[in-house]
């Protein structure tokens, strides 16, 4: 090995050691952040307790504690930022030296045997990939991505998670930007709707400005003074809610090539994200997720969290949620005429591009049945395939949409905000029987229709369209249901009922008259004396989590 190659190899090794040392600080930062959040909550409680009767000395103590906390908080922020800057500098330097080393190695490499067939091999190696995560790319492009330092390090750290059956503290891996770009470009393969909506990358919480009504131009004399046109603009605020899924990867793949590992892992993440995003675009309930099209149309009053500077809220639940009685139409032509009139309720103002119409497979087949006819050769054909007859919008099949419901409109007027970055980490459980390691993939999105008038939902079987669907429960972020001991039942003599909750730090609120408890009900602080027949109902609440379901325990005392 040449002297320069030895020097570069040693220098790269030293820099990687320094980079690992900086990465090891991340776990400490997370611990300190958690401690700061706890202190912040305690200080907030202290501030809330200040009243007119609080002495000046006590006020001064609280003020000093708050000032000290803010200084420490700012110092931690600066320290984390400096650490990130140093990591970036090291990564750039490592990449630069690695590129130099690779260039030297290429020049020093011996000429391979059979050089006369090099052109043939180059053509074969540069063939377009037709399936998997890297679909649509040439193998040469794929290989260059896999060969990059950041991707190799990412895959190496993923392999280190193999076989771990516990929570992996500090092991969360940020997906390299190069892979993330490919994931974004492929999202239309995983999400059927994402190519129809307006996808906007944002950093953190952001306000998106949207155009309001466009004023009419004013005619004047050729030499007249121009009039000012008053354009109205509105703003909607978008955040970044996490969407994720578990991705089982066979251990054999973890031991396989970088190409196979990257393809399987990123393909699984893409599918998990795509399926969740589609369902939320249609039916998202705004509870830590997107606001769905149908949810917006079903609103009967202006929500309390409607953006202050947003577009004017309009009641659309009677004008844009419609149904058709097929028995009222004796011919297919009359039926289709009625369908088109209903679809025409979606307003195209300010829209860019065409419409889309989402429905399940059974509904699509029902529509096709209305288009059946015989062609000139006497063959039975359907005049509708992948688009809505006459109207021309694309038909999108989504299995979660109920039978006979059609949801759609002008997708460009649905704003889907994508937070930068996606992560992958090992799960707490390993499917060791199937010889698989389970990873989780997460990304962050928010979104909402910026003009509800651009969408419509209709039912073609004369029933009210479905406006809500059940999403998988977020058990990890829902407070556990309270428990009561002794359990509900019949007892001789008075009982002392103790309530408990498996979620640490949760507060229990209860009632004894059978009414539904709220945070205004009595807070539990000790056993409840039950001397006569009564029904105890309780909920558990914790900041940052969804309230538990109501526990009901009926006691009959004789």
Automatic annotation (TrEMBL):
The residue ranges of the GH29D-like beta-sandwich domain are: 486-551
Q: Which domain of life is it from?
A: Bacteria
The places in or outside the cell where this protein is found are: Virion
Where is it mainly found?
A: virion
The region called Disordered is annotated at 40-59
For the Phage capsid-like C-terminal domain, which residue ranges apply? 175-459
Acidic residues composition bias: residue spans: 43-55
Q: One matching Pfam family, short form?
A: Phage_capsid
Membrane-spanning residues: none
Record's protein name: Phage capsid protein
């Amino acid at each position: 090995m040449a002297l320069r190659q030895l020097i570069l190899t040693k220098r790269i090794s030293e820099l990687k050691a320094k980079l690992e040392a900086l990465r090891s600080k991340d776990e400490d930062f997370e611990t300190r952040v958690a401690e700061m959040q706890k202190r912040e909550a305690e200080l907030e409680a202290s501030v809330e307790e200040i009243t007119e009767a609080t002495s000046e000395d006590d006020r001064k103590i609280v003020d000093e504690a708050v000032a000290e906390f803010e200084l420490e908080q700012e110092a931690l922020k600066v320290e984390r930022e400096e650490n990130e800057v140093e990591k970036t500098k090291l990564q750039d330097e490592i990449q630069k030296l690695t590129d130099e080393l690779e260039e030297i190695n290429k020049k020093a490499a011996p000429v391979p045997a059979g050089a006369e067939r090099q052109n043939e091999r180059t053509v074969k190696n540069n063939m377009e990939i037709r399936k998997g995560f890297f679909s649509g790319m040439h193998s040469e492009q794929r290989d260059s991505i896999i060969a990059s330092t950041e991707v190799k390090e990412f895959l190496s750290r993923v392999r280190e998670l193999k076989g771990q059956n516990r929570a992996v503290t500090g092991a969360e891996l940020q997906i390299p930007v190069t892979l993330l770009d490919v994931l974004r470009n492929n999202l239309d393969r995983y999400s059927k709707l994402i190519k129809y909506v307006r996808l906007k990358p944002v950093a953190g919480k952001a306000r998106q400005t949207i155009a309001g009504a466009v004023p009419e131009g004013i005619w004047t004399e050729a030499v007249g003074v121009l009039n000012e046109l008053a354009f109205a603009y509105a703003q909607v605020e978008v955040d970044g809610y996490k969407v994720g899924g578990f991705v089982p990867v066979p251990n054999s793949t973890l031991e396989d090539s970088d190409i196979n590992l990257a393809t399987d892992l990123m393909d699984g993440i893409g599918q998990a994200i795509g399926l969740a995003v589609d369902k939320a675009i249609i039916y998202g309930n705004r509870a830590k997720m997107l606001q769905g099209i149908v949810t917006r149309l079903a609103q009967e009053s202006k929500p309390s969290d409607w953006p202050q500077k947003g577009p004017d809220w309009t009641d659309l639940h009677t004008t844009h949620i419609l149904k058709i009685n097929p028995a009222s139409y004796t011919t297919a032509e009359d039926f289709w005429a009625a369908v088109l009139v209903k679809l025409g309720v979606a307003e195209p103002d300010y829209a860019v591009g065409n419409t889309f119409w989402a429905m399940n497979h059974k509904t699509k087949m029902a529509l096709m049945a209305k288009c059946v006819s015989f062609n000139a050769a006497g063959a039975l054909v359907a005049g509708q395939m992948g688009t809505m007859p006459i109207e021309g919008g694309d038909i999108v099949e989504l299995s979660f949409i109920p039978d006979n419901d059609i949801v759609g409109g002008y997708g460009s007027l649905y704003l889907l905000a994508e937070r930068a970055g996606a992560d992958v980490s090992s799960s707490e459980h390993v499917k060791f029987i199937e010889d698989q390691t389970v990873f989780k993939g997460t990304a962050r999105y928010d979104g909402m229709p910026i003009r509800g008038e651009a969408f419509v939902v209709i039912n073609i079987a004369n029933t009210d369209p479905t406006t809500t669907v059940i999403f998988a429960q977020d058990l990890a972020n829902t407070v556990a249901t309270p428990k009561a001991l002794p359990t509900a039942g019949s007892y001789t003599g008075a009982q002392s009922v103790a309530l408990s909750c498996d979620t640490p730090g949760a507060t229990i609120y209860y009632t004894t008259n059978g009414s539904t408890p709220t945070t205004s009900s009595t807070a539990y602080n000790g056993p409840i004396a039950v001397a006569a027949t009564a029904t105890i109902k309780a909920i558990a609440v914790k900041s940052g989590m969804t309230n538990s379901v109501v526990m009901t325990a009926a006691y009959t005392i004789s």
